[in-house]
Amino acid sequence: MEFIVFEYRVASLARLRDRTVHDVDTELAELRATRLSGAHRVPGWEGESDQVDDESSAVLDEDTRQIGAGIVAVSAAAAHESLINQMLDQPFDTRIHRPGLAR
User: pLDDT of 30-44, one tens digit each?
Assistant: First the structure.
């Protein structure tokens, strides 16, 4: 029974990861389309407009992806620890049964 709960948690994390990747890809495609059309440019501030567009793309493509992956990794570790804690329910397991993520 414990493994089923773990499996659902991991499946939810996989769905979250897929959704994050899809949303970032969609947003990047919209930024590229805006860039190609030139709609992002403010008259008189063309260079700065391009720079802001480049920075937005970089944040999405690098930072947002890394943050999303980190959230999934830490959550998967927590789900795994929860599974282990549920499986260590015997009286003699108390010395290895510690709550919280261990280093």
Answer: 999 998 998 888 899
**Separation CA 25–CA 19 (nearest Å):** 10
Distance linking the first and last C-alpha atoms of the chain: 27
Q: Which helix (H) or strand (E) holds 91?
A: none
Residue 27 to residue 24: CA distance in whole angstroms: 5
CA–CA dist 11, 21 (Å, integer): 15
CB neighbour class for 8 (10 Å; exposed up to 12, middle 13-18, buried from 19): exposed
Token pair 């897929």 is found at 18
Residue by residue, DSSP assigns 56-96 as HHHIIIIIIHHHHHHHHHHHHHHHHHHHHHHH--SGGGTTT
What pTM does this model have? 0.70
Any idea which residue has 């567009």 for tokens? 53
